[in-house]
Write a sequence for this structure.
DNA sequence: TCCTTAGTATACCGATCTGTATACTAAGGA
DNA sequence: TCCTTAGTATACAGATCGGTATACTAAGGA
């Protein structure tokens, strides 16, 4: 089976790492398991990624765009004003969290798990990801003439990650509905 | 050094496990490191705890009361009405999160980290802990005549864990201030 | 005095961890 | 034809993992 497209092989390895890291946790998954899942020898894996740490970084960097796209679509494709549309994001989240394969936010979980090692890189990737979405929210809130769009965007970020944590612990979608109501309230209300 | 108080030895082991699990993560810490930190041989450790899994469970169960006490005190000892006092909890959290030893919520991190193994036990302990505090909040909100105290308590829980996640990722206390304002708004506002 | 208790010291088990070494194969281009 | 490329197969190194076995010591109570 030689002479395959190298880029395609690289993607298969990255996909295997993504599936396993997300499902079981980063520290819980060994490189042997990743290579086996990708249908590739460990030697080939190390030709494409110099170490497990590098693979972890690539895994997180690769999640940035699809996760953002999913969140943004759940807002952009919803009806109503900006408050309704952001509330819809929480409802969409509740639906996804019902599936067994849903395991929360890969960025928050990576930061939770890797507390001493290369926390620097991981925290930066996670922080950039969260900041990107916060900025997107701020712009869209401002476009709908919401006052203090920066503060409200930040509060929605807090609600989002809090909602994810509650869903992961309780597996009870009513936390998403409470979060949706809170978001609507914070976006619409004129708070002192 | 024989003939020590067994209960005191057990506590020393549990304290070492607590320090290491919280600082570095549960999967990242080996039983050898815990025994060494406790100044005890591995053999002694296994006389007090039958396995690492049992030690993990004891670690989490032992965190329940002190964590709750800390949160409750940061509310009970603050001035103002219930909205002000709950807002103070977020400010106190921001202060604690400035310290390097602060690493977020031990329960949420344990659930994040242990996704396949004995997730059952761990998720139950974490869920009970969160529910206990949510119930405490609900009672105190109701005592101050806040409408929909159950909903508002749930929303404060979402804000709390979201705030912790943001603080852990960004290490930026302004997220706590935004959370405090959100909590005040949700407690005081009459939302549709 | 003797036995139980609580612990130490040390060594080991098999498994798994990240990572590397050696040797081979099949596809395609010059 | 021959060389480079992309990969396989297998084995192993050195460390660490959770957990156990053997043999010993020192403090107290009966």
């Amino acid at each position: 089976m030689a002479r395959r497209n190298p880029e395609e092989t690289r993607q298969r390895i990255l996909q295997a790492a993504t599936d396993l890291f997300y499902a079981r946790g980063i520290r819980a998954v060994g490189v042997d398991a990743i290579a086996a899942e990708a249908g590739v020898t460990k030697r080939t894996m190390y030709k494409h990624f110099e170490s497990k740490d590098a693979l972890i970084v690539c895994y997180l960097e690769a999640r940035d765009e699809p996760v953002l796209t999913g969140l943004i679509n759940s807002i952009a494709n919803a009806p109503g004003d900006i408050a309704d549309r952001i509330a819809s994001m929480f409802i969409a989240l509740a639906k996804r969290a019902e599936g067994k394969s849903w395991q929360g936010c890969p960025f928050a979980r990576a930061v939770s798990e890797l507390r001493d090692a290369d926390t620097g890189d991981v925290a930066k990737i996670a922080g950039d990801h969260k900041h990107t979405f916060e900025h997107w929210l701020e712009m869209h809130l401002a476009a709908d003439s919401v006052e203090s769009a920066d503060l409200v965007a930040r509060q929605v970020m807090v609600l989002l990650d809090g909602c994810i944590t509650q869903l992961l612990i309780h597996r009870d979608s009513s936390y998403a509905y409470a979060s949706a109501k809170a978001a609507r309230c914070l976006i619409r209300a004129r708070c002192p």
User: Anything to note?
Assistant: Chain B has a mean pLDDT of 95.
